[in-house]
Amino acid sequence: MTDVLVAVQGGLGRITLNRPRAINALTHGMVRTIADVLDRWEHDERIRAVLIEGAGDRGLCAGGDIRAIYDDARSGGTGSLDFWAEEYRLNARIHRYPKPYVAFMDGLVMGGGVGISAHGALRVVTERSRIAMPEVGIGFVPDVGGTYLLSRAPGELGTHAALTTTQLTGADVIHCGLADHFVPSHRLDALAEALGRSGRDGDGRDGDGRAGEHPADVVAAFAEPAPASDLAAQAGWIDACYGASTVEEILARLGEQGQEARSAAKEIGSKSPTALKVTLRALRLAARLPTLEAALDQEFRVSSACLHSPDLAEGIRAQIIDKDRNPHWTPQRLADVGDDLVADFFAPPAGPELGLGRTEGGTHR
Fold first, then answer.
1. Which of 184, 215, 301, 331 has the highest count of CB atoms within 10 angstroms of its CB?
2. Given 106, 143, 293, 299, which residue is catalytic?
3. Domain boundaries, given as residue ranges, for the chain
4. Catalytic: which of 64, 111, 145, 158?
5. Can you tell me the distance from the alpha carbon of 90 to that of 82, in angstroms, rounded to the nearest whole number?
6. Active site residue 64
7. According to the UniProt entry, what is the EC number of this protein (predicted)?
8. Known catalytic residue: 87?
9. Cα distance from N-terminal residue to C-terminal residue, the chain
């Protein structure tokens, strides 16, 4: 079975992630295929817009190939570094893609799934969308440009999402700036067909998606007002608590608030202490970085350090391999994660740097 299906329908290039039993989790080969297709379609005059979607009804993409990362983390391998380098380059490519890049963020969208969708020009969510960056739960740190996106959400909503790993609704991510339009899931097929029609020459007038119409106008014609964001309604206590400068102080403030805040504190308390502190620092630094590429460079440094940290293998073991949900973090307490240890995650890696921040060009934004 082909893991990535590629098709051209009218003026639309369709990329379908085709691992539905794994919720379309990304492999290294899939990343390379998507990158090759985008390169080819950039100069194909037939292609007016690109659509990325997931096969099945469970979600666009549940993230990366965690088991392969686990094997690397245990054995001291470097395959994950090669994967991340190509994945992050793809994220930057999507952000700068010169043709409209449409992402159907339907169902579950996590980790790497966010990277191949939320950097696009036209990001569509549905009533089934559940978006999350769950990295701290496995001893990792948000990557694929996640620190860039979350650090630019209103107030401290992105910090809350990163430290708790909570799943956000479509309405939530629109509010946070990670998506643009709400379209009911039962209309996605019709929207894709309309996008294909919009790229054709001629005078066809066959409903939504008229020939020659810009893809952005087609998506907007299908969009409906998003439901109210539950996350936005909680901004008061979230901003008050997560504005603190340390994880310890965030937890102390959460403990002084209502039940929702105390539940958030409980969630944070179950995550890797090291990953929590590194994530908070990564978010604060990313908020001051000028481009997505600069944030991806920083994330590559952090990811490289995580690969050699004991918490990544242990977190994946507890959540994915043995599924006992009982990770033994090293260190086990926030108090034992010193500033020097956190700083080590941001030091230049032993191997090559990613270097995207030195080569960025124009952007569709």
1. 215
2. 143
3. 4-358
4. 64
5. 12
6. yes
7. 3.1.2.4
8. no
9. 36
Cα–Cα–Cα angle for 205, 105, 356, rounded to 5 degrees: 105
Q: CA-to-CA distance for 104 and 276, rounded, in angstroms?
A: 30
Catalytic residue flag (residue 3): no
**CA 331-335-339 angle, 5° bins:** 85
Position 349 pLDDT exceeds 90? no
Closest by CA position to 222, among listed 266, 185, 176? 185
Phi first, then psi: give them for residue 124, nearest 5 degrees.
-110, 130
311 has pLDDT over 80: yes
Q: Which of 72, 135, 156, 314 is catalytic?
A: 135
Active-site residue, from 59, 112, 113, 137: 112
Pick the CATH number of 4-358 from 3.60.120.10, 3.40.630.190, 3.30.2290.10, 3.90.226.10: 3.90.226.10
Beta pairing class for 59-61 and 122-125: unpaired
Q: How far apart are CA 286 and CA 207, in angstroms?
A: 44
Rounded-to-integer distance, Cα 115 and Cα 25, Å: 12
* Bridge partners, 50 (sequence order): 13, 101
- Per-residue pLDDT tens digits for 172-185: 999 999 999 999 99
DSSP 265-323: HHHHHTS-HHHHHHHHHHHHHHTT-SSHHHHHHHHHHHHHHHHTSHHHHHHHIIIIIS-
